[in-house]
Amino acid sequence: MFARSLILAAGFVLASVASAADAPKWEAGKHYAVIDPPVATSTGDKVEVLEVFSYACPHCAHFQPYADKLKASLPKSAEFTLMPADFQPVWLVFARGFYTAKSMGLLDKTHQAMFDAIYRDHVPMQNIDQVADFYAQNGADKQTFLSTAQSFVVEGQLEQIRSREMAYGVDSTPTLIVNGKYRISAERDAGVGFDQMVEIAQYLVAQESKKGKK
C-alpha cells in the first residue's frame, strides 16, 4: 500500500508539472484584454497588429524601438499598422499630420524622424503649420501638405478615431490591438512592460495565425 501510494503521488506530481508547462504564459483578463465584440480589421487575410499612439506621447517615443522589433518579428501572415489617438487637441493636430503624411507616402521616412524632432531636437509642434514645416523638410511640398490636411479624406479619417478608440476600449498609449480582438497595454501590477507587450502580441499573432483569419 505504501509503495502504491508513492507511485500514485509521483504520478500526480508529474501530471501537475506537465499541466503547468502546458498552461499559457499570458492570460486574458490579466496580461491582455479581450475586445467584445471584435473590431473589423483593415489588413485583409492577414492578422492585424495595430499600435494606437501619438507623436505627442513621450511613452510612445520610448516604445518606438519595441514597435520596430515587433514589426520585424511578424510572420508573413500578419501586418503592422498605426492609428493616431486624439486624447487632447494637440494630439488631433498630430493625427491630422499623420494621415496627411500617410496619404503622401511619407511615413516610412518620417515616423521615427517625427519622434526625434520632438523629443531629441525639441522642435516646436503646436499647430498644423509647424507640423507642415517638419514634413516640408522631409520631402513634402508645404502648401500641398496643408491643403491635403484639410481634405475630406483626412477629415473622414479623423472623425473615425474616437469611435475606433471606444470600440477598442483604448484609454492610454501606446496600446497594441491584435486582430481587432485583443488589447495590450503596459500594466505594472500585472508585470507587463514594453518587452512583455511585444511578447504578448507575438503570442497572440501566433494563435490567430494558427486559427486562420476570421
Walk me through this protein's architecture.
It comes from Dokdonella ginsengisoli. InterPro entries: DsbA/DsbL, Thiol_disulfide_DsbA, Thioredoxin-like_fold, Thioredoxin-like_sf. Belongs to the thioredoxin family. Residues 1-20 form the signal peptide. The structure is a single chain. The chain has 8 helices and 5 strands, in the order H-E-E-H-E-H-H-H-H-H-E-E-H. 31% of the residues are buried. It has helices spanning 2-22, 58-73, 89-103, 107-120, 128-136, 142-149, 152-168, 194-211, and strands at 33-34, 47-53, 78-84, 175-178, 182-185. The chain has 214 residues and is an alpha+beta fold. The longest helix has 21 residues, at 2-22. The chain has a single domain (27-211), classed as 3-Layer(aba) Sandwich (Glutaredoxin). It has a 5-stranded mixed beta sheet with strand order 1-5-4-2-3.
Order of helices and strands: HEEHEHHHHHEEH
Alpha carbon gyration radius: 22 Å
CATH H-level superfamily? Glutaredoxin
- Total count of strands: 5
Distance between the termini: 54 Å
Structural class assignment: alpha+beta
> Helix segment count?
8
Strand content: 5-15%
In the residues, how many domains can be counted?
Answer: 1
Q: Major beta sheet, specifics?
A: 5 strands, mixed
CATH architecture: 3-Layer(aba) Sandwich
The largest beta-sheet arranges its strands as 1-5-4-2-3
**What form results from the Cα inertia axes?**
globular
Mean pLDDT, to the nearest integer, reads 90
What is the name of the CATH class?
Answer: Alpha Beta
Helix content: 55-70%
Uncertain regions: pLDDT < 50 for 5+ in a row?
1-10, 12-21
CATH topology type? Glutaredoxin
Domain Thioredoxin-like fold: 46-184
Signal peptide: 1-20
Protein name: Thiol:disulfide interchange protein
InterPro entries: DsbA/DsbL, Thiol_disulfide_DsbA, Thioredoxin-like_fold, Thioredoxin-like_sf
